[in-house]
Amino acid sequence: MIFSAVIINSIVLKDNWTVWGPYYFIFLASCLCDVISHALKELLVRSMPLEQTSFNFKISISQLACGIVLIPIVLPISRKYENY
Fold this sequence. Notes:
The chain is mainly alpha-helical. The chain has three helices and no strands. 86% of the residues lie in helices and 0% in strands. It starts with a helix and ends with a helix. The protein is elongated, with a radius of gyration of 17 Å.
């Protein structure tokens, strides 16, 4: 659903693709990371009995670590286009 909305917006705003195109890709990448994260969590939760509190804490720490790793990648892209 989100992907189709982005595609429709990119068609409508194709004249401004050079300005807004990178933001579409950042948005799609963040949606993809969110879907993969939830899929992995569900896969782990459904496949073995877990102690939920500790598992949720470990997942939160893992997501924080991934966010810290991705910040140096996202910030230069964002800084490059912030004047638009």
